[in-house]
Specification:
The protein is α+β, with helices and mostly antiparallel strands. The chain contains three helices and three strands; from the N terminus they run H-H-H-E-E-E. The protein has one domain. The chain has a three-stranded antiparallel sheet, covered by helices on one side. Helix 1 crosses helix 3.
Length: 158
């Protein structure tokens, strides 16, 4: 039996890798970086989902108001000539009906009516509301604006 001095490797064997004192804790730093990146990705996903839900709620309110406004036909013309392709929308009734519908429904917090207008056959409603995000990463996105259209279209029943 041969004796090998301490710190020496036997012939035919590979010496174990030496650990350097400055490598300790590097996995911890990489792990913390991975956790930070995952948290940032989760925050972006949550903010995106919340913004989408808020936009959909605002668009739903605009759609309903446009449909309500499309009910504002010119009654004098309607009673004089009957229902026909010449039946038009009365702009003052359109605005009144759409506004009344918006005010009477559950509105997203801070919603404002940007514009309601009609060209006689189409109703357009533009609404906006503040964007309320749980983790506001981009402070410049502060309002959502949507626009919805409805059309008065006469189709005779056969």
């Amino acid at each position: 039996m041969s004796s090998i001095a301490p710190g020496r490797v036997a012939p035919g064997r590979v010496a174990p890798a030496r650990r350097h004192a400055d490598d300790r804790g590097s996995v911890l730093v990489l792990g913390l970086g991975l956790v930070a990146v995952c948290m940032l990705a989760l925050t972006v996903c949550i903010d995106g989902a919340v913004a989408l839900v808020q936009r959909q709620a605002l668009l739903s309110a605009a759609d309903a108001a446009a449909i309500a406004g499309a009910q504002g036909i010119d009654l004098a013309e309607y009673y004089a000539t009957g229902a026909s392709s010449a039946t038009r929308l009365q702009p003052s009734d359109v605005i009144r009906l759409a506004t009344r519908h918006i005010r009477g429904s559950t509105m997203p917090p801070g919603m404002s009516i940007e514009r309601i207008w009609s060209d006689g056959t189409d109703v357009t409603v533009r609404l906006s509301a503040p964007l309320r995000l749980p983790f506001p990463l981009v402070p410049t996105l502060d309002r959502i604006t949507v626009e919805s259209r409805a059309r008065l279209q006469y189709r005779p029943i056969a």
